[in-house]
Amino acid sequence: MAQHVIAPTVRDGYEMQDVRTDSAQASASSSGHSTDHEKMSVDAEKVMLEDFDDPPDLADTPASAAPYSFEEEQAVLRKFDRHLVLFIALLYMLGFLDRSNIGNAKIAGMSDDLHLSSSEYEWTLRSFYITYVLFEWMPILYTVLSPSKYIASCVLLWGAIASFQALATSYESLFFLRALLGISEAAFSPGVPVFLAFFYRRDELAYRIGLFISAAPLATSFASSLAWLITKVGQGLPIAPWRMLFLVEGFPSVLISVFAFHHIPNSPGEAKYLSNRERRVAELRLRKGETKVGSSRKLEPSEIWEALKDPKCYLTASSYPQSSTRYAMIAVAGIFKAGPMWRYWGVYPAASGFFSAVTLLITWTINNQV
Predict the structure, then answer these.
(1) What are phi and psi of 27, to 5 degrees?
(2) Alpha-carbon distance 238 to 308, whole Å?
(3) Is 10 helix (H, G, I), strand (E, B) or coil?
(4) What's the half-sphere exposure (Cβ side, CA atoms, 13 Å) at 79?
(5) What predicted TM-score, i.e. pTM, was given to this entire model?
(6) Residue 328, SS3?
(7) Based on the number of CB atoms within 10 Å of its own CB, is 354 exposed (0-12), middle (13-18) or buried (19 or more)?
(8) If you average pLDDT over every residue of the chain, what do you get?
(9) Cα 357 from Cα 353, distance rounded (Å)
(10) Helix or strand or coil: residue 46?
(11) What whole-number distance in Å separates Cα of residue 235 and Cα of residue 230?
């Protein structure tokens, strides 16, 4: 049986595969063969990357031998950054607005209309974070369900729940809705790094996760101004301004969830904004120098155990108590009527970006480990 020889060739800036058979090579080397034999020769046949049904495993292939160019790989990355990472960051920004607008709603008269005491208002705030912490295991579903349907469902749920807060008539109903909001957002945000790992290699993730997380401070930069504008317009309407705030900031998430269902791909090979060749490059690049990252989403119990044993997981988690401790000093100083110096010890590190620096340093260390 004839064997196939695959030789890399380059034409028009694309690396291709020149596929020829032993019999065809013999035919090409003999000048006196008939026309039929010449037609059978595949010496000149060029098979582009997307024509392969089963792409080669590039785990141990050097970069110089990869069946695509560096420029092609960078073009794919730029498209993922624009169409995927920025869109996921937009969803996170909308979610952050929906979780944080309760403070602006209180200023707009929510506590007075619902007759909330100071303690009830504080427990309403806590209800979100209690359920958020309890349901942070839900991002495991990224590896089980279709990511496009799962993400769109999360966005639809938190948008609907955030809007329903406008219908709250008592402390109990508001408490319940805030708890549900915590569940819906816990299902999305903590699992985004897992989802992005379907499209990026390990050494590329930290930068993209940083872009994603930056949506939170971006939201806070204009949240108050937006809330002021909404409540100002709502003063002339038959609905209370704080109810209008919940509706206007919550309903956009419901609308964008429909677009998310069609826009977010389940894998690199399903990205509609990539050409056929770019989809194949996006799939192959994950196999180069990696242990099949993104090629399988099946959750193995051994992977959970490996994560629990990995000290880097606890190092990353330690950044949160560091931040909370400093902020807690401000609250404790107020309760015990301590001097202003104790408050400054909590404010100065936060205002100078100390906690952000610690978090970024940990991320950089993990991303650049040998």
Answers:
(1) -65, -40
(2) 54
(3) strand
(4) 20
(5) 0.70
(6) helix
(7) middle
(8) 76
(9) 6
(10) strand
(11) 9
**Helices marked H in the chain:** 22-29, 35-40, 70-80, 86-100, 102-107, 110-114, 118-134, 147-164, 171-186, 192-196, 202-213, 215-234, 241-263, 276-285, 301-309, 311-317, 319-335, 340-351, 354-367
Beta strand 46-47 with 4-11 is unpaired
Mean pLDDT value across residues 331-349: 67
Q: Which residues contact 321 (CB under 8 A, 6 or more apart)?
A: none
- Spatial CB neighbours of 335, under 8 Å, sequence gap ≥ 6: none
Q: Check residue 287 and give its pLDDT.
A: 78
Torsions phi, psi of 196, nearest 5?
Answer: -65, -25
pLDDT at residue number 66: 56
- Span 19-49, pLDDT tens digits: 343 444 444 444 444 444 444 333 333 334 4
Please name which of 223, 192, 222, 221 lies closest in space to residue 208, comparing C-alpha atoms.
Answer: 192
Q: Find where tokens 């399988």 sit.
A: 296
How far apart are the C-alpha atoms of 295 and 23, rounded to whole Å?
36
Which stretch of 4-13, 92-101, 267-276, 345-354 has the lowest confidence by average pLDDT? 4-13
Q: What is the pLDDT of residues 147-199, one digit of tens each?
A: 999 999 999 999 999 999 999 999 999 999 999 999 999 999 888 988 998 99
Tokens of 139: 């991002």
In one letter, which amino acid is 36?
A: D
d(CA 256, CA 97): 14
The residue length of the chain stands at 370
Name which residue leads in pLDDT, 317 or 47: 317
**Spatial distance between the Cα atoms of 34 and 246, rounded to a whole number of angstroms:** 80
- Structure tokens belonging to residue 167: 């219908």
Q: State the Cα–Cα distance between residues 12 and 298, nearest whole angstrom.
A: 39
The Cα–Cα gap between 370 and 366 comes to 9
CA–CA dist 17, 28 (Å, integer): 18
How far is the C-alpha of 182 from the C-alpha of 124, rounded, in Å? 11
Q: Return the structure tokens found at 148.
A: 């496009």
What is the C-alpha to C-alpha distance for residues 174 and 248, in angstroms, rounded to an integer? 17
pLDDT given for residue 29 in this prediction:
45
The average pLDDT across 10-17 equals: 39
Lowest mean pLDDT among 90-94, 106-110, 175-179, 233-237: 233-237
